[in-house]
Write a structure and sequence with these properties.
This is Deoxyribose-phosphate aldolase. Its main location: cytoplasm. Catalyzes a reversible aldol reaction between acetaldehyde and D-glyceraldehyde 3-phosphate to generate 2-deoxy-D-ribose 5-phosphate. Its EC number is 4.1.2.4. It is found in: Cytoplasm. The protein has a single domain, classed as Aldolase class I (TIM Barrel, Alpha-Beta Barrel). The chain has an 8-stranded parallel barrel with strand order 1-2-3-4-5-6-7-8, surrounded by 6 helices. Helix content is 39%, strand content 16%. The chain contains 9 helices and 8 strands. Strand 5, helix 6 and strand 6 form a beta-alpha-beta unit. It is α/β, with parallel strands linked by helices.
Length: 231
């Protein structure tokens, strides 16, 4: 298992792990504009939004990266539809695409289908675009998580990601992140998302091997670190 020491991480350093996220169905364009402004103020790595909001106005935040979701939140979309959605997102300015696998295929052990689904989206998100694969870990057992992560590696993804944050089974856990990191090795990205509400949660997941965090309560998480009162 690969772990990362978090001793001494300050709010600015933690912010660089963060995809500052707004995926609520009722979100408005004004809400997304506020997300971008807040993300720039907090110094996060990226904002993560629904693809219908692209392109974003980053005039006041030129260094902020843009992530979007694909096949969200169920993953029950034909691979060609996911690929088209991803391609359109990249065309409209997305730097990163977070796709949802067909969780049912993973649960049934059809990892060839999972790999083919990921590969279709990978082809639509060529480098330097970043592809993250949402495995919905809380809905899978350990063997299914491992099989899905191996499929993501084989299909050329850049990250595996725990959760959509919308599944009733739950979100990120330390155990899932440890298992995902052990499966994909030290160089592939691992994103923890779903239910991360405190600084302690965030640091525990980084210690477990996460290299990116999907947060909606970013300000509160950063403020939970010593010296983070200004956030």
């Amino acid at each position: 298992m690969t772990t990362t020491a978090t001793t001494g991480i300050d709010p600015a350093a933690l912010a660089q792990y963060v995809d500052h996220t707004l995926l609520k169905p009722e979100a408005t364009a004004a809400d997304v504009a506020a997300l971008v402004a807040e993300g720039a103020q907090l110094g996060v790595y990226s904002v993560c939004v629904s693809p219908s909001f692209l392109p974003l106005d980053l005039t006041q935040a030129p260094n902020l990266r843009v992530a979007v979701v694909c096949g969200f939140p169920s993953g029950k979309h034909h691979s060609s539809i996911k690929a088209a959605e991803a391609a359109l997102a990249v065309q409209h300015g997305a730097d990163e695409v977070d796709m949802v696998i067909d969780v049912g295929a993973a649960r049934s052990g059809d990892f060839a289908a999972v790999e083919a689904d990921i590969a279709a989206v990978r082809a639509a998100v060529p480098a330097p675009g970043v592809l993250k694969v949402i495995v919905e870990s809380a809905a899978l057992d350990d063997a299914q998580i491992v099989g899905t992560c191996r499929a993501a590696v084989a299909a050329g993804a850049d990250f595996v990601k725990t959760s959509t944050g919308f599944h009733p089974a739950g979100g990120a856990t330390v155990h899932a992140v440890e298992l995902m990191r052990a499966t994909v090795g030290p160089t592939m990205g691992v994103k923890a998302s779903g239910g991360i509400r405190t600084a302690a949660d965030a640091l525990a997941l980084i210690e477990a091997g996460a290299t990116r965090l999907g947060l909606s309560a970013t300000g509160a998480v950063l403020a939970g670190l010593d010296g983070g009162a200004g956030y």
